[in-house]
Amino acid sequence: MARPATPARATKALVADLRAQGVECSSRRLEDWRRVGLIPRGHRRSLGRGRGTEVVYPDDMAERCRRVAERMRRGQPWQVVALSLFAAGGELPEETVRAAYRWALTIEASGDEDELDAAERGVSQLLSTVAGRRLRALVTSHVKRSGVASGEPPSAVADGVLTNLLLVQLGGEVADDTAMIELLAGIGLPIAELPPDEQVRAARFMDAVLGAFSMDELVEVAEGAPLEELRSAVPVVVQLLEVVPGELRALIPRPVAELLPVLLAPLVVQLGRVAARLLADVHPPGQQAAGPLSQAPATMEPMHLPRSPGQPEPETRSA
Q1: What is the DSSP letter of 112?
Q2: Is 262 contained in some domain?
Q3: How confident is the model at residue 43 (pLDDT cuts 50, 70, 90)?
Q4: Nearest-5° angle of CA 62, CA 67, CA 70?
Q5: For the chain, how many structural domains are there in total?
Q6: Chain-centre distance of CA 296, in angstroms?
Q7: Same domain? 63 vs 134
Q8: Which pLDDT tens digit goes with each residue over 238-256?
Q9: Would residue 158 count as lying in a domain?
């Protein structure tokens, strides 16, 4: 039976250094962190002929381990720690970041249910939580205020709004224009103030836009977008979250709120791509959207107008 490998001398020294800083750690835990890419692996350096090798760590290894330990609460998935480090500017292997995004953005459905069944199940689970019930009350108040319930209980319409929101994320489609109008009213948009035909137009536009933001689409963005593009979207999300009503922000648990900017970064990247496609539809390639603006300074020189045949040259006047 093979015996477990003895921790290298450099690893023992690193553990001792961390403990001296108040960070309780072990060689086995460090190996777990290295395995998933939260901290770098050391490299072996030769000590000379016949003297063997030693493991050498980066100079900032203890600081990197300390940052991981600060985020690694009991039972915390390593993917959450990876996303937190990434948002903070930490250097992580690309595959570690991609894998963390896949874990966070992938919604699994059982093989015997379609998107609608999965959405209804998800809403049922959401409503079993305090935050979910508060969110339902908020959506219900928006539905009441908008008047889109049309004789139905506003709470039932609110449940439909939540189901459709999750359905879209699962890649499904909202059933019809009425359901989309209720969805927009339920999230607080003043769509009920528009004339009926404008409501339908807004609903169909939003249906086209929301279709580009399913979890599958966002996973593709997280898989393919350059990491720096994802990282640069994080402060944009922070600014966007500042305009979210306080009553809605209060429903978000603090650990989730801390991760929202990095989790929503693929959404911002995708939004930019959707906007580019919409603009391309309005102004196809080869069609100039607008004349270039002149950068020349303003001048008081008179503009020369075309003259009719036989019209004499204008008299030149001097100041």
Answers
A1: T
A2: no
A3: low
A4: 120
A5: 2
A6: 41
A7: no
A8: 888 887 767 767 777 777 7
A9: yes
Q: What would the pLDDT profile of 246-287 be if each residue is shown by its tens digit?
A: 776 777 777 777 888 898 898 889 888 877 777 776 655 555
Are 237 and 268 in contact by the 8 Å Cβ rule? The answer is yes
pLDDT in tens, 104-113: 887 666 666 7
Domain boundary among 182, 213, 244: 213
Q: Is the dihedral of CA 283, 171, 107, 261 positive or negative?
A: positive
> 172 near 135, Cβ under 8 Å?
no
Q: How far apart are CA 278 and CA 213, in angstroms?
A: 14
Work out the angle between the directed axes of helices 154-169 and 115-126 (0-180°, nearest 10): 120
Q: Give the residue, 172 or 213, on which the prediction is more confident.
A: 172
Determine contact, residues 214/171, Cβ cutoff 8 Å: yes
**CA distances in angstroms from 58 to 26, 90, 95, 257, listed in the order given:** 18, 14, 20, 32
Q: Which residue has the tokens 């960070």?
A: 23
- Specify the amino acid at residue 98: R
Q: Alpha carbon of 205 to those of 157, 200, 227: distances in Å?
A: 21, 9, 30
- Domain-embedded: residue 295: no
Domain that holds residue 54: 1-72
C-alpha dihedral over 143, 162, 273, 107, to 10 degrees? 170
Residues 67 and 119 in one domain: no
Q: What is the spatial distance between Cα 284 and Cα 287, in angstroms, rounded to a whole number?
A: 6
Under a CB-based contact definition with an 8 Å cutoff, are residues 56 and 10 in contact? yes
DSSP state of 212: G
